[in-house]
Write a structure and sequence with these properties.
Chain A is mainly β and 434 residues long. Chain A contains 6 helices and 24 strands. The chains are: A mainly beta (434), B mainly beta (503).
């Protein structure tokens, strides 16, 4: 019974925590330091460019929409139906959430080179919805009598800060750029192994749980010897120190080739790297097979106490904690695209791939924006994401002298129909250029 | 402000702005799910049934594995102190003249021929009016060791003694052998003045600390060992509700160990059976009237223990008839008579570690014939862990090796014992007995499956169940018209499982 609530909580947290921030495909239409988020080969048009903080995020639920299993009553109560969720999850669905809070970005023209530096906080969360697990939570295990099913769900969460320094330069028609990022991890937790096989006996429903689980943990939970006794080490909004012993490095690289003065294509990779998690790091493992046959009648006759079936299930997942550091790759992104500027119009086409938790999230974007007057730009895009084929994004940019501000999203309809969203990304930010 | 706080504050702002799309409340839909799970398993044996009832029962298996239920009373024991308790030396015995015979403090009917002292210490007190040193030799003619008579010499320095009275140091008599004559021991002293003149002292006396013997022989007269009694609780009928159970050849067994060297005969003060209706019936037997002679070691078997086993059974008593009345207690009180025939020609002996021990057992061979023998028992249960359950299908599998048909009714009770529900006539669990096929023992288990459905209405009635009353009716007549043996390796295998509908 607690399991279904756990699953539901994870799902709701996943869906409810998206941020209205623009995915970085729109950055190609910004002539400000924010273009560097997607294109490390960006050449600033001003001597000095400073981002006044920017926040971006992206999440993806594949083919699953919130409205597939949540309905809202007239008095505002949202009802979650596990039955409906099960009906809509027929295969494993990767679910991911990624975001950044860029505190500061600075770009300076220095002769042939352009120097960049900045700091940001990255957060990543991923899992893969297991249709069998959801089916059992929704309907019970009666449909699986006599069968062995896999209930494992991989997952992970990671929060770290990124300090970077980089250069870009122009060589003929080719712009190249690279950034070296120092990563300092705050929290991480991820499954390495997540095999949980459940067999329900054919005749008398003996439950056999065979698990082979390994979870890496750094800083999120304190395991007190039992799966029922787990503490959250610190609340997410308190950090003992700003820097931990979890150090890592990643690189961003990009090229931008100007075919003509108004047309070019680019390719880039961001955040290719790894972090060594050692501060309070440990491995939680469970490798055991437990068969639950019910209470021993002779114990009842003897008047001895018996363990409840719920406690027996918890015992089947007792974890062994072994301190030790581990390495984990960061979530990397790959982009390639083409762009064209014509008078007040700018066009671009991009393909993106985001690696998160072992799953790849792709996107295709056809974008167009237009300057309206001296201070305002408006853009729309059509984009395709995994299992989501009808998305219209929006860009709105305001320029007032040296100050620019923007907001962008990849699915404007979700603002009006949140129950139909299958993913969302966006960003907002501001900058100064002079 | 720390960047982190800014970041998280922004996140929270955006989160709540976004969650305004969804409102603040989420709840789960009221949907049902069916969970298949095992409930219980085990194998029920005769030992389990006996353990469930209170009492001190054990099972004994013979070489073929046939079961006899054994109910034991406390071991009643008497030791050597009953014959010759240690005598504290409270008084001194005066040695009149220079020779005197001092009587041993024993019962007048005793005749002590020989005794080996334990850790008894003796000492002497003398008084003399003159101030001079007296040399004194004390001799106990009837006490010797290794051919030597007990003799000790004292120098009594009355010259330096203020009150003219001297008490000697103690002498240990351990391992010295006494040969009393008419239960008396002769003491003799010779006192000499310094000039060699033999004199009589003004006063001479002997004292001892505790008179103890490690061995005595002779004749110890008639004696009654008050063994006292006990109550043996028979729990086999504790769960009985109705019906008959015949047990073939029940016995009351006396097991006596005796290391005293004299004849002993039982005296039964009480041997009563109490039945389930609180009726009391005395066991009748010629051996209750005339007594049972127990074995004893002969004079050349000192140190050995003789064992006597006697059974009160259907051939020498009315016990088999009495047990048909569903006996729940055996109440007994025995005495043991030493030298019951008063034959003084039998040489008795005693050792300090000798004992007389009686153990009474009730033996019920599990060769039984049951006629709808119904037992009932109540088990505590709680469905609190299944508060979300609204219906259930209960599945029961039994594998029965007993040649006994069983009908089991389950009655669901609330905390106050009120009936909430019970199995219908069609749902009563009817377990068939395994066939004997003309043999003493079954060779197969009869496996059966039962399904009991508790729909939503019925389940709602039993959700507050705190106890389940099981009524089990047992019958052997289908398999045999004669009593049948129960074997120790018979075990009724049971598995319970359920499909529970949750909401």
């Amino acid at each position: 019974m607690k399991l279904k609530y756990t699953i539901t909580s994870i799902l709701l947290w996943t869906f409810a925590s998206f941020s209205l921030v623009a995915q970085d495909s729109w950055m190609m239409h910004l002539n400000s330091i924010h273009q560097g988020y997607i294109n490390p080969a960006y050449i600033p048009s001003h001597t000095f460019e400073l981002s006044l903080a920017s926040m971006g995020g992206d999440f993806n639920t594949g083919s699953l929409k919130l409205g597939d299993f949540v309905s809202r009553s007239s008095d505002g109560i949202n009802t979650v139906s596990l039955d409906a969720l099960s009906a809509n999850v027929k295969e494993k669905i990767p679910v991911g959430l990624y975001g950044t809070f860029n505190t500061i970005d600075l770009g300076i023209k220095a002769g042939r080179f352009n120097i960049f530096a900045g700091q940001g906080i990255h957060y990543e969360l991923y899992t893969s919805l297991n249709p069998t697990l959801i089916g059992i939570a929704a309907h019970g295990n009666v449909d699986y009598i006599g069968q062995t099913v896999d209930l494992g769900m991989p997952g992970g969460v990671s929060i770290y800060q990124k300090w970077y320094a980089g250069l870009s330069t122009q060589i003929g028609n080719l712009n190249i750029g690279a950034r070296l990022n120092y990563l300092n991890g705050w929290y991480d937790m991820r499954t390495v192994k997540n095999k949980i096989n459940l067999t329900t006996g054919a005749e008398y429903y003996e439950l056999t749980i065979a698990n082979d689980i390994e979870i890496k943990n750094a800083g999120i939970i304190k395991y007190n010897g039992s799966i029922e006794d787990i503490d959250i080490k610190e609340s997410i909004d308190r950090f003992e120190t700003y820097f931990t012993k979890n150090n890592g490095v990643s690189i961003d690289m990009g090229v931008d080739y100007q075919l003509t003065s108004s047309t070019g294509f680019f390719a880039s990779v961001q955040n290719l790297g790894t972090i060594n998690w050692s501060d309070g790091a440990s491995s939680l493992t469970s490798q055991q097979t437990t068969t639950l046959k019910g209470v021993d009648i002779e114990s009842v006759i003897d008047g001895n106490g018996t363990e409840s079936i719920e406690d027996s299930i918890y015992d089947a997942f007792n974890l062994v904690e072994t301190p030790g550091s581990y390495n984990a790759s960061t979530s990397s992104r790959y982009q390639a695209g083409i762009y064209h500027q014509s008078n007040a119009m700018k066009y671009s086409g991009l393909a993106t791939l985001h690696q998160l938790g072992g799953s790849g999230y792709y996107g295709l974007f056809l974008q167009a924006s237009r300057r309206l007057g001296n201070n305002f730009s408006l853009g729309f895009n059509y984009n395709i994401r995994k299992s989501s084929y009808a998305n219209v994004g929006l860009l709105a940019e305001l320029s007032l002298g040296p100050f620019q501000a923007f907001v962008c999203t990849q699915n404007i309809w979700s603002l009006f129909q949140p129950f139909n969203l299958q993913g969302l990304s966006g960003r907002f930010g501001g900058s100064l250029s002079f | 402000m720390r960047f982190t706080s800014l970041y998280l504050g922004a996140c929270l702002l955006l989160f709540y702005s976004c969650s305004s799309f969804f409102g603040d409340e989420f709840e789960l839909a009221q949907e049902t799910r069916d969970i298949a799970l095992p409930l219980a398993y085990g194998s029920l044996s005769i030992q389990d049934v006996i353990d469930r009832a209170e009492g001190d029962a054990s099972l004994r298996l013979d070489g073929d594995g046939r079961v006899t239920a054994l109910y034991s009373g406390e071991i009643l024991r008497d030791n050597a102190n009953k014959i010759f308790p240690p005598v504290p030396g409270l008084f001194e015995f005066e040695i009149r003249d220079s020779v005197d015979e001092l009587p041993l403090p024993v019962n007048g009917s005793y005749r002590l021929d020989k005794g080996i002292f334990d850790n008894t210490n003796i000492f002497f007190k003398f008084r003399y009016n003159e101030k001079e040193t007296i040399r004194l030799v004390m001799k106990i003619a009837s006490v010797n060791k290794d051919g030597q008579v007990w003799k000790k010499e004292y120098l009594l320095n009355f010259a330096d003694d203020a009150d003219g009275e001297i008490t000697t140091e103690t002498s240990l008599l351990a391992s010295w052998v006494a040969f009393p004559v008419a239960n008396k021991i002769k003491f003799q002293y010779e006192a000499y003045r310094p000039n060699g003149e033999r004199i009589l002292l003004n006063y001479a006396a002997m004292r001892f600390d505790v008179l103890k013997f490690v061995y005595l022989d002779g004749y110890f007269g008639n004696h009654t060992f008050d063994i006292k009694g006990d109550i043996i609780k028979i729990n086999i009928f504790d769960l009985w509700k109705s019906g008959g159970l015949e047990i073939e050849n029940p016995t009351i067994r006396l097991d006596v160990d005796n290391s005293f060297g004299f004849p002993v005969r039982s005296k039964v003060n009480q041997l009563t059976l109490k039945t389930i209706g609180n009726n009391l019936f005395n066991v009748e037997s010629e051996y209750i009237n005339k007594g049972i002679d127990f074995s004893y070691p002969a004079i050349n078997e000192v140190g050995s223990v003789k064992n006597t086993v006697f059974h009160f059974d259907g051939t020498n008593s009315n016990i088999e008839e009495l047990f048909k009345e569903k006996v729940v207690q055996v109440i007994y009180d025995f005495d043991a008579l030493a030298n019951p025939d008063g034959d003084i020609g039998v040489k008795n002996f005693y050792t300090s570690d000798a004992f007389f021990a009686v153990k009474v057992d009730v033996e019920l061979p599990m060769k039984i014939k049951s006629n709808q023998f119904t037992i009932a028992d109540t088990f505590d249960v709680s469905f609190d862990d299944y508060s979300e359950a609204i219906a259930a299908e209960l599945k029961i599998r039994t594998a029965n090796p007993f040649p006994v048909d069983m009908d089991i009714q389950m009655i669901f009770l609330d905390a106050a014992g009120n009936e909430l529900s019970r199995l219908t006539e069609q749902e009563i669990i009817t377990i068939n007995g395994a066939p004997l096929n003309g043999k003493d023992k079954t060779t197969e288990k009869i496996t059966q499956d039962f399904v009991v459905n508790f729909d939503e209405i019925r389940f709602s009635k039993i959700k507050t169940t705190k106890k389940i009353l099981f009524n089990a009716s047992l019958d052997t007549n289908t398999q045999s018209q004669q009593p049948i043996w129960l074997f120790g390796d018979y075990g009724l295998d049971v598995k319970l499982a359920a499909i529970v509908k949750l909401k």
